[in-house]
Amino acid sequence: MTLDRPSYVWPGGKRSAACFSVDVDAEAPYLWQHRAAMPDTIGALEQRRFGPREGLWRLTDLLERHGIRGSFYVPGVVAETYPDILPELCRRGHEVGLHGWLHELVADTTQADFVRALDRALALFEAQTGQAPAGFRSPAWEMTPAMLAALRERGLRYDSSLMGYEHPYEIDGITEIPVHWSVDDAIYFKFLGGGADKWPPVAPLHVGEAWLHEWRSGSAYGSLFMVTVHPWISGRAGRIAMLDHVLETITGDAATWWATAAEIADWHARSPNAGRFLVAATVPTGAA
Amino acid sequence: MTLDRPSYVWPGGKRSAACFSVDVDAEAPYLWQHRAAMPDTIGALEQRRFGPREGLWRLTDLLERHGIRGSFYVPGVVAETYPDILPELCRRGHEVGLHGWLHELVADTTQADFVRALDRALALFEAQTGQAPAGFRSPAWEMTPAMLAALRERGLRYDSSLMGYEHPYEIDGITEIPVHWSVDDAIYFKFLGGGADKWPPVAPLHVGEAWLHEWRSGSAYGSLFMVTVHPWISGRAGRIAMLDHVLETITGDAATWWATAAEIADWHARSPNAGRFLVAATVPTGAA
Amino acid sequence: MTLDRPSYVWPGGKRSAACFSVDVDAEAPYLWQHRAAMPDTIGALEQRRFGPREGLWRLTDLLERHGIRGSFYVPGVVAETYPDILPELCRRGHEVGLHGWLHELVADTTQADFVRALDRALALFEAQTGQAPAGFRSPAWEMTPAMLAALRERGLRYDSSLMGYEHPYEIDGITEIPVHWSVDDAIYFKFLGGGADKWPPVAPLHVGEAWLHEWRSGSAYGSLFMVTVHPWISGRAGRIAMLDHVLETITGDAATWWATAAEIADWHARSPNAGRFLVAATVPTGAA
Amino acid sequence: MTLDRPSYVWPGGKRSAACFSVDVDAEAPYLWQHRAAMPDTIGALEQRRFGPREGLWRLTDLLERHGIRGSFYVPGVVAETYPDILPELCRRGHEVGLHGWLHELVADTTQADFVRALDRALALFEAQTGQAPAGFRSPAWEMTPAMLAALRERGLRYDSSLMGYEHPYEIDGITEIPVHWSVDDAIYFKFLGGGADKWPPVAPLHVGEAWLHEWRSGSAYGSLFMVTVHPWISGRAGRIAMLDHVLETITGDAATWWATAAEIADWHARSPNAGRFLVAATVPTGAA
After folding, report:
1. Which of B87, D137, D142, D226 could be bridged to D160 by S-S, CB 3.0 to 4.6 A?
2. Average pLDDT by consecutive 10-residue portion of chain C (288 residues)?
3. Count of pairs with CB atoms under 8 A, one residue in B, one in C
4. What residues form DSSP beta bridges with B74?
């Protein structure tokens, strides 16, 4: 509990920050889901392959139109399957970050498997881009203390998977660039059919209005507006048009600092914020 | 991955295309669902029979008011039960296409059963209309590579079940006229009661606004606006009124080409697009 | 299939009709649900008892303000537990109709139990009101051919549980006054907590707009606008305010005929519509 | 059934009342849910810890800006883990009330465990604040007659967990300050990921409009507007902005009495309302 709550400080007198993050999942979650037995159907695969075919590049076009560099988190298997993705994103000036190998869900993954996927992806990223990535984003936004430690031990500069503040903070000694469900595209738009969906897609314009409300409201608190999209979902025309409107509005605000997650993490480390927002990833013992 | 992404070309300088497709399911999915044991209840049957009684002909009236010919996909059992449907749709100038025999769900159907249903429906269509249908639409929008091959072997000119692009493309050598959940009526409106529904019907006017947003947004990318409706669902007055507004808006745009799916498939085959958007229906081997 | 579709004719040159129906369920569905083992909790009971305490009488006040007589369907156990309800509704000029004894769900009820509940409720209605009810509404809107026959054999003049047309029709020789999920309050508003709900309550004003859209759209087709509400759900202030607006709008339209379901059934029987909309409650044999 | 329905009387000629209640759950429901086996993941914990870190104090700031004192219900384990919360809330003039020890769900709790948690929390509250709390709110809004009796025996002045009226009433001899799902934040906003959510977060501005509609509609009936929020949910910037608008609107209405639940319970006991709204917490015997 922090009764004395310091304000978060952004560079150059900015009131708040915005980051456009892209989880380039493509087939990876499907491969993970069906790792025991692959069905012979292609509906979900075709829907997901729209991402690398078309959606991803509509998103980079969109960002370039608005002069924004994004942070793209790419599962190892996607970078391996589509070897042009990482080099091309780097060439365009975007950040690329880790996102597991097979989009492994934390709750179903051992620490040993997590570390193996992490090291395999790190090696591939360095081979394909010539440099080490700065950060990691957990598939489905879940972590354990041991996984945070594994990131720290490998010199990663940040994690971007948790929701403990609305601005960067430090958890177990690693910088956390927080996310939030309210500004994630998948929970509003993802629809795969076949009986497993629990709600229909939300109208893009309604989501856009809600996201702008989040951005405006967060500005008053110095929050980070961290939007997260997926190429196979938000690369569809109706969502691109929504994002276009959102970006046009936010880039028109001089008090918002657009940056990649890596830039935000680096700012955090060297700013007056460092050391002010420290938390421990304590898991309770249970019986209380 | 297609870093070099060609634009899709539509005939006569049109910017995009629109197709009004109707899945004339009536009782077929109910017969499939209860094929092992038929309950003695009639609630769902009466709701579904509103389709052939009334909804289907409200839809043909609607299309005629707007000067549009639609593509109607009819399960074999529906054509057999209501033998006036196929001839009457042909008489009015609409396209009729295949939609399985009993609305068989792909995930629960063997290749042998798929082929048997396909051939039985083909024979019935030819008997009732005097001509072979041009295309196939999968119930619930799912396919396998083997099912695509079965279509190709029977000389069908297109499939309309997948979502790999927003415009026609070729998959394993057959033309795909793509669909998308965001412009399907069932996921927004279908409600059967009895405890199985997972969300309530969405307000028709909100769906209409969202669909117009999809159309407008897709126009900028040269996309195909492929709307899909069901007579027992969208034949209800509130949805007809919504569709009326949608069609009135889109037919007012000179840059949108209204066509049947068969016409679009034929255009694709003879246009500069042919050969530019080729994909393989590859199912991963699993372990990665 | 009715290629030649006659228009429905309403009395006095009216274009369409409206009926305000109230399912006075109170605790009945809860008693049915827990008939094997009653929990000792009172949350759902208190929420449901708001109906007979307060909600029901807010609804009768509302109807009286708008000069409308409604059709109230009351499970036998509710009439027995609250013996003032049936006489008071009759005194105010409303119709009272049957709704099972314990709100028995059709799918879980034998024909013998259905008939026993029906006869027990019929006897109670006659004892409490001095007259036989004209109609029956099935809990959860489901029927079987045998249940329809049981209504007919007891001289009931109509059933109001099915969705096969948007206006009255005849099914297996009994008049059907149709309902529809899109204008039922429970699917939008019912929320009981405890983890079983599948969606949150919809904003009342949005539901009201959607209902007016249904009414307006249906008017163009001569449809019956049959709204269905529950006192424990729509007796809450926010829903009453919505209903107030809906009724104010519709009563302002001179071309809509407000009537009880019994009056509508009687009109159907003696009007030119009689015999024009006949269907059979055929249950398919399954294998097709 | 109350055919003769008295109006509820509020002090000083006010037409209705409003209460801002806060369920300070933090990790408590998570500890309860995983009491048998605690996972090693931290996603939900971090999301929940945003409450005591930040959300709770944004809410107290919000209330102070609007000159409102709220009623804060705090599980014992939360008060123990964050020992500044109760004293600080008291210092700021808010009411603090009981909310179980570990946010025990009634359906999964024996009477003995309920009483043990109640007494443990009572002792902690008295130790931390120097006074006995006035009221109790059940986690998840459920009660049994025996639990109501336990509150009464311990001299608690009210319960706030049920929905039997829209204004205070008496149930089994204890004053009930009623709640309602329609004005609870969790059902609209709570989203935890991991596959268990059944609907996506609703846009805050839509929820705010719906809540103002509830308040306006209830005013016409003399209802209590009892809003309930959670710091980890509604402490997020977008929800705070919504609440700000709601409070600004309602505090601008001179006919609405803002009070804590304890003040409302005390008013009820000494007002003309006392004895007018008496109900028994009767659980039916089942077979009817």
Report:
1. D137
2. 79 97 97 96 98 98 98 98 98 98 94 98 98 96 98 98 98 98 98 96 98 97 98 98 98 98 98 97 79
3. 138
4. B98
- The per-residue pLDDT for D67 is 98
Tokens of A47: 């829907």
CA-based max dimension of chain A: 58
Q: Is the pLDDT of residue A247 over 70?
A: yes
Structure tokens at C47: 């929420």
Chains that touch B (3 or more CB pairs under 8 A): A, C
* CATH code for the structural domain at B15-279: 3.20.20.370
DSSP string, D55-96: IHHHHHHHHHHTT---EEEE-HHHHHHSTTHHHHHHHTT-EE
Residue A146 CA to its chain's centroid (Å) = 20
Query: What's the whole-number mean pLDDT along residues D99-111?
Result: 95
Task: Tokens for C99, please give them.
Answer: 């709704």
What is the reported pLDDT for C287? 54
CB contact under 8 A, A223 and D237: yes
pLDDT at D34 over 70: yes
Which of D217, D219, D221, D278 best probes binding to C when mutated, by most C CB atoms within 10 angstroms? D217
The correct CATH number of D14-279 out of 3.20.20.370, 1.10.3900.10, 3.30.300.350, 3.40.1110.10 is 3.20.20.370
Radius of gyration of chain C (CA): 18
Contact check, Cβ <8 Å, C40/D145: yes
Q: Does A91 touch chain B (CB under 8 A)?
A: no
Q: How many residues does chain A have?
A: 288
Q: What is the largest CA-CA distance in chain B?
A: 58
Percent of chain A scoring above 90 in pLDDT: 96
How far, in Å, CA of B217 to CA of B215, rounded?
A: 6
Report the alpha-carbon distance of residue D236 to residue D229 in Å, rounded. Answer: 11
Architecture of domain A14-273: Alpha-Beta Barrel (3.20)
Tokens representing residue B270 in the block: 């003879």
Neighbours of chain D (3+ CB pairs under 8 A): A, C
Instruction: For residue C214, give the amino acid letter.
Output: E
The amino acid that residue D194 corresponds to is: G
Q: Which pLDDT belongs to residue A1?
A: 47
- CB distance D54–A217 less than 8 Å? no
User: Which CATH number fits the domain C16-279, given the four candidates 1.10.287.370, 3.20.20.370, 3.40.50.720, 3.40.50.300?
Assistant: 3.20.20.370
Dist CA A68 CA A92 (whole Å): 11
Q: Do C49 and D279 touch (CB under 8 A)?
A: yes
Q: How far apart are CA A21 and CA B142, in angstroms?
A: 31
pTM of the shown model: 0.97
Classify A233 as helix, strand or coil. Answer: helix
State the CB neighbour count (10 A cutoff) for residue D264: 27
ipTM: 0.96
Element (H, E) at A98: strand A95-98
**CA geometry: angle at B166 spanning B161 and B167, to 5°?**
85
- The stretches of chain D forming alpha helices (DSSP H) are 28-33, 43-50, 56-65, 76-81, 85-91, 111-129, 145-153, 186-189, 204-219, 231-234, 237-251, 261-270
What pLDDT, on a 0 to 100 scale, did the predictor assign at position D287? 54
CA nearest to C53, candidates D159, D176, D10, D258: D176
Nearest to D143 among C43, C49, C85 (CB): C43
Give CB contacts under 8 A, 24+ apart, made by D117-122. Answer: D117/D76, D118/D150, D118/D151, D118/D154, D119/D154, D120/D76, D121/D75, D121/D76, D121/D79, D122/D98, D122/D154
Determine contact: D46 vs chain A, CB below 8 A.
yes
Looking at residues B141-155, what average pLDDT do you find?
98
Residue carrying the six token digits 């008892």: C49
